[in-house]
Amino acid sequence: MHLKEGSPDMPKRERKLGFYERFRVSLHDLGYHNNVSIIARYSNSTKILDSWPQSIFRGFSCAIQKHPELSTIVARDEDGTPYFQRLSTVDLKQLVTFKNLKDIEGEEVDTKLIALSTSENNRGFENTSTTPSWRAIALRESSDSFRIAFMWHHVIGDGRSGLAVHRSLLEAFQLFEDDIDCKSNRPTTTSLDFTHVPSSTKPLFTSMEHMLPNSFTPAATSPLQGLKWAGKFYNDRSPILTELGHIRVSANSVQRIIAQCRRHGTTMTALLQAIVAKTLLDRVPYDRIRTAVAVSLRRFFDPTFGIDDSVMGLWISTYTTEFHQTEFRYQNAADELDGLWRVSQQNTAQINGVIANSGKDVEIMSLMGVNDYSAAVKSRVGQPRDNSFGLTNLGVFGAVSTGRNTGGVILDDMFFSQSCHANGAAFQICIVTVQGGDMNIVFNWQEGVVSQEEIGGVMGGVGDLMRQIASSE
């Protein structure tokens, strides 16, 4: 049967992709970057588990209504121009699978999460022209908790988009006791048809170049003197394999470190950037390194656009910093922490400068002038990498009230990771914390680009310094 133009079942054409969205599609199609993922734990959820798996489908039905990106695909015109197309319905049974956490490889929970994330981050999305570019795995963990692993193509959202989806799921699960039909917002006693969940009627937000029309690429700064370490040269060996490592920082330690950051007039992101830079320069025979820290552009948009941390979209850039060995040379061990705080304060000043510019200086805007992204990234094979490491801190996922009217379900742990960037930094660091909970720091790197000795040394050094700072007065 052929669908007629204007038929309700006909996919709806949306806007063309912006420059950064086109870049992300090229990276995915080349196999250079597969996806981003967040695994979240939902506790106090006995009733959700009693209604498994229907309750999970209901949660995602709600999320689809709130986020139109979850029902879009990337289509192309005859000339190859990519654009978003909205499906009329979404088949959740094709996108959401169910497992038991105990069946995942590994003895400890964190080991299992690393194994699952590694497997998923090494899988891209097939048939992106017919199927939404996301998937999820619901994992039963105990009698009153489960986890949801949500993986998505970077073209439909940045890291905060994953937080937005999990927040929508949490809100849906908290309303479960009120028996709300997620398709109509009415109480219901009938089961929903999850074979064909209606897509959202909300409009897609526009791309970043339209949100920040007066932005430009900041002028390049002169590199510091000396040889720069950035792992092995950029290559496109296939398959490009992502490896992951993990550090969990206890909630008590997180609170103590945050208190120290406030006392020294700095932030957790700035401190972590300094800590990783120091541990890396302590372990490689090079003079300098270059870091790229992700920055959300949402805060710079006109508030009338309605873009905040509750919605999906790709609105990020980076700011870069160079560090030299001499910044981390101390006369004695007692000076080590003072030196780290000084560097951290310098990082904070840079972050504040980026914010003060209100989105005028956006490094990612340098991509706007590229006509063929695939050719551009391929042309750099065999060349040195620009950055030594990248850092993305999603910050703190705020706790949600669990009063009588919202049910007892809480989200109390998160694990954020992504596939390696074949043409990006030598390694990436992904960080997220749940309010009042542990901080999870995930390292990702491409097999063959960073040695196990190098990355193991950095991870060990970061863990040691975090513990040292948490225990200091």
UniProtKB/TrEMBL annotation:
Pfam families: AATase. This is Condensation domain-containing protein. InterPro entries: Alcohol_O-acetyltransferase, Atf2/Sli1-like, CAT-like_dom_sf. Signal peptide: none annotated. GO terms for molecular function: N-acetyltransferase activity.
